[in-house]
Predict the structure.
Amino acid sequence: MLTVETARTWLSLFIEKLEKNEKYLNSLDESIGDGDHGANMLRGANELKVNLTGESSVLLPDLFKLAGMSFIKKTGGAAGLLYGQAFLHMSQALQASSDLLDSLTSGLEGIQKVGQAELQEKTLVDVWSPVIEDIRNKCLSLERINAHVTSTKGFQAKKGRAAYVSEQLNGHIDPGAASCGYFFEAMLEAGVYDE
Ligand code: ADP
Ligand code: MG
C-alpha cells in the first residue's frame, strides 16, 4: 500500500540504489551520451536525502513534491527535469487520492509533457509505461522490471543527447531506463505495490 511510511522507504531505497550504482549508470551513459547520468542522479538523491531527514511529518503529496524539487534543483540535465516533473505530477495526483496507479499515470504524463517521447525511443518512457501497464494487469515483478529496462537495448534513441550519437545504439541499455528500473525495484521492495 502507498502510505507516507512505505513512500519514505521507497524513496530511501531508491536513493541507496542510486548511490550504489552511480558508476554503472555513468558507464551506460558513456556509451550513448556524455557519461554523467549516475553523477547527475546522485546529486538529486543526495539533496532528497537531506530534505527527507529534515522533514519528519509530511503528507504523501509533500514527499513527492520534495523529491521533484530535489531532482529539478540538483540533478540538472534532461533527467533532472524529467524525473522532477514525474515526481511533481505524482504529488499533484496524490492530493486527490493515494492511489498508486493514478499517481504513476500522472507521473508518466509529466515525463511526456516535458520530453515528448513515445514508446521505443530509448527513454524513461520505455520503463514507466510498461510498468504502469503491469500494475494495471496485476503482474508486475522484479523480472518484468528488468525485462523492460533491458528491452531498451533494442531501441534506437530518438530523444535527448543519445539521438545525436551517430553510431548504432542497439545493444546498449538506456541509462535513464536503468535508473527508472531502480525506482520501480525500490517500489516493490518497499511494499508499496500489492496486487
Ligand atoms: P543529459 O542527457 O542531459 O546528460 P542524463 O544523462 O542525466 O542527462 O539523462 C539521460 C537520460 O534522460 C536518457 O538516458 C533518457 O533515458 C532520458 N531522456 C532524455 N531525453 C528524454 C525525453 N525527451 N523523454 C524521456 N526521457 C528522456
Ligand atoms: Mg548524460
Remarks:
- The domain at 4-189 is CATH 1.25.40.340 (Serine Threonine Protein Phosphatase 5, Tetratricopeptide repeat).
- The two ends are 9 Å apart (CA to CA).
